[in-house]
Amino acid sequence: MSSPKYVGIRTFLGAPQSAVNEVLSGQIVFCGAPLDAGQTYRVGARHGPSAIREASRVVRPYNPRLDLDLSALALSDAGDADVAPGSIERGFEAIRSHIGAIVQRGAYPMIMGGDCSIAFPVLGELYSKWGPIALVHFDAHTDTWDEYWGERYTHGTAVRRAIEAGFIEPSASVQVGIRGSGYGPSDVEQSRDLGLLVLTADQVHADGASETARRIVERVGSHPVLVHFDIDCLDPAHAPGTGMPEVGGLTTHDASIILVGLAGINVVAAEVTEVLPAYDPSGITAIAAANVLFELASLAGSHG
Ligand SMILES: [Mn+2]
């Protein structure tokens, strides 16, 4: 409260800046992975981190649903990975270096994407620290396709690649909000064939947010968890500024109730992806993303 919200240099939630090699064990560390070389339709998620940081000016540090004050925790913002434009391989290297430094120091990265392809290098670094982890994947899309035009590393293939690499424990992992027109029945079956639990958007709407949260908690158990939140899990009415919008999605309220309902699971990292500021003239997508990341940091903060 010492300065108005529009004053000062932007970090997420006004957290102090720190270099990745200065973060502390147990710290919640906001950071960016501005890679959009994996996008297959609209592009521009490289500008996601700066937009989400700017939108976080409207987010306050106290979470009333969890009675948790994030400002009482040792937050920091470690900036963005130096992602070279246009090269997914070099982008992955930069992300592994930046996120890996945070993870190996025992801190909890809260990552602003970037497109969904960043999940692959992030999961690789989490695997190095924690072994196979549970993935809680909010998305309209399964991201379990095998390739796009011969490309095996894209935003639509990251989850399959991570399972093939052994980074994820599928039996403890779940996809939430899956929906939309497809190429055939295999679009969803391919995820179930890989061992994932799929909760479609239709199921979430029918079951409600609290029951959805209960099923996710039951699924992940005591595993270390990465929560990957593609902003297109939300309905385009709530998050229009994204790469591959799909009608019939979750509201921001649905999402916040589900996330609060996950309190107690062992969140060791989180990421919010696919925010495209160029398609977000009113800024509501970035505001939704900033609030989602606030809820995710609250989950990491609430398990100590
Ligand atoms: Mn998606």
Provide the residue-averaged pLDDT.
Answer: 96
The stretches of 5 or more residues where confidence is low (pLDDT under 50) are none
Question: Which CATH top level class fits?
Answer: Alpha Beta
Number of domains: 1
Name given to the CATH homologous superfamily: Ureohydrolase domain
Largest sheet: 8 strands, parallel
Q: Tell me how many strands there are.
A: 10
Q: Architecture, according to CATH?
A: 3-Layer(aba) Sandwich
From the 3D structure, determine the CATH topology: Arginase, Chain A
Can you describe this structure?
Strand 7, helix 5 (186-193) and strand 8 (197-200) form a beta-alpha-beta unit. Helices cover 33% and strands 17% of the residues. The protein has helices at 48-55, 88-104, 119-130, 158-164, 186-193, 201-207, 209-220, 252-260, 284-302, and strands at 28-33, 62-63, 68-69, 75-80, 108-113, 134-138, 174-178, 197-200, 224-230, 266-273. The chain has 9 helices and 10 strands. The protein has a single domain (12-302), classed as Ureohydrolase domain (Arginase, Chain A, 3-Layer(aba) Sandwich). It has 304 residues and is α/β, with parallel strands linked by helices. Helix 6 packs across helix 7 (209-220). The strands form 2 sheets. It has an 8-stranded parallel β-sheet, with helices on both faces. A two-stranded antiparallel sheet has the order 2-3. The chain is globular and about 55 Å long. Bound molecules: manganese (II) ion (MN).
Characteristics of this structure?
about 300 residues, alpha/beta, Arginase, Chain A, eight-stranded parallel beta sheet, two-stranded antiparallel sheet, 9 helices, 10 strands, about 15% strand, binds manganese (II) ion
